[in-house]
Design a protein that fits this description.
The chain is mostly beta strands. It contains 2 helices and 10 strands.
């Protein structure tokens, strides 16, 4: 959830739980040719499919390495992020197979960021998701 600085807006989405502001989907300002992810399970969808919300697209970490992902999403213009949404793999938040990020760190301008850099540099914003497994479409407002 965010707003584009240039005034270009997609259809309103939201509000994020706990807010009253309307947000826009930023899919039209993502530079899909430059998105990347580190530590993704090769059996899962590619990041572009996930960001475009294509049917059945799933992004998961490689279970043979660890449960962290480092996702790079560049925008073609300045944006202000007000919230983030993650969708769990199942519709039941009590399902043992439901999964989603518990901790999210956001970094500004980190095209060359790696796992060591993410661990040693302070995040622009750190978010702990309020639910161990986010409900479908679970949104978290950034404060």
């Amino acid at each position: 959830m965010a707003s584009a600085e240039s005034g270009k807006e997609d259809a309103p989405v939201g509000p994020v739980a706990g807010t009253t502001a309307q947000f826009v989907n930023l899919s039209s300002v993502i530079d899909y040719s430059k998105v990347s992810v580190l530590n993704a399970d090769s059996k899962c969808s590619n990041l572009k499919s996930v960001l475009k919300s294509e049917a059945g697209a799933v992004l998961a970490s490689d279970p043979d390495v660890d449960h962290q992902l480092l996702v790079f999403i560049p925008f073609m213009e300045a944006v202000k992020l007000h919230g983030v949404c993650f969708t769990a793999l199942t519709t039941s938040s009590t399902d043992a197979k439901a999964s989603g990020p518990k901790n999210v760190k956001l970094f500004n301008g980190g095209s060359s960021l790696d796992f060591d850099g993410a661990a040693s540099n302070p995040a622009t914003q750190a978010v702990r998701h309020p639910h161990p497994t986010p409900p479908p479409g679970g949104c978290t407002a950034l404060m």
